[in-house]
């Protein structure tokens, strides 16, 4: 009987320790997630990137005339069904004739924010 009680207490302690570890790991993960730098997109940076990398094929600004058939960013912004996710996927994995610029996630978010500003212009 004493031996069973000792075993039961040991099992209970192990279970309590496991629960404590699980709770601790959960709290640590929450703190890490909340303190991680969030990708805050900046449309001004996106416009600068667009002028630097995209303007040779796309109309990025006003009064820029392109003749190679690439859509103007304003047209992309106003395209029916064009969502942030579709833009993100396209920029992350471009298809010919668009070159693979190897854009970083932050660059993509900045470009998307810039393109989004063109919807109402």
Write structural notes for this entry.
The chain has two domains: 1-36; 43-120, Orthogonal Bundle (Cytochrome Bc1 Complex, Chain D, domain 2). It is mainly α. The protein is rod-shaped, with a radius of gyration of 26 Å. It contains five helices and no strands. 61% of the residues lie in helices and 0% in strands.
Global morphology: rod-shaped
Q: What is the structural class? A: mainly alpha
What is the number of helical segments per DSSP (H or I, 4+ residues)?
Answer: 5
Largest sheet: none
CATH architecture of the largest domain: Orthogonal Bundle
Distance between the termini: 82 Å
The total beta strand count reads 0
What is the fold named in CATH at topology level of the largest domain?
Answer: Cytochrome Bc1 Complex, Chain D, domain 2
Q: What are the low-pLDDT stretches, counting only 5+ consecutive residues below 50?
A: none
- In CATH, what is the class of the largest domain? Mainly Alpha
Tally of discrete structural domains = 2
From the structure above, extract its key features.
single chain, 121 residues, mainly alpha, Cytochrome Bc1 Complex, Chain D, domain 2, 2 domains
Set out the fold topology.
Layout (H helix, E strand, L loop, with lengths): L1 H34 L7 H12 L18 H6 L5 H9 L12 H13 L4
Helix pairs in contact: 2-5, 4-5
């Amino acid at each position: 009987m004493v031996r069973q009680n000792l075993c039961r207490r040991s099992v209970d302690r192990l279970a309590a320790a496991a629960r404590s570890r699980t709770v601790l790991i959960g709290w640590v993960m929450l703190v890490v997630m909340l303190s991680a730098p969030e990708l805050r997109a900046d449309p001004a940076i996106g416009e600068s990137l667009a002028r630097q990398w995209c303007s040779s094929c796309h109309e990025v600004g006003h009064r820029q005339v392109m003749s190679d058939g690439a859509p103007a960013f304003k047209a992309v912004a106003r395209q029916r069904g064009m969502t942030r996710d579709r833009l993100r996927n396209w920029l992350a994995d471009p298809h010919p004739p668009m070159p693979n610029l190897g854009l970083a996630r932050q660059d993509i978010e900045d470009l998307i924010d810039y393109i989004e500003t063109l919807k109402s212009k």
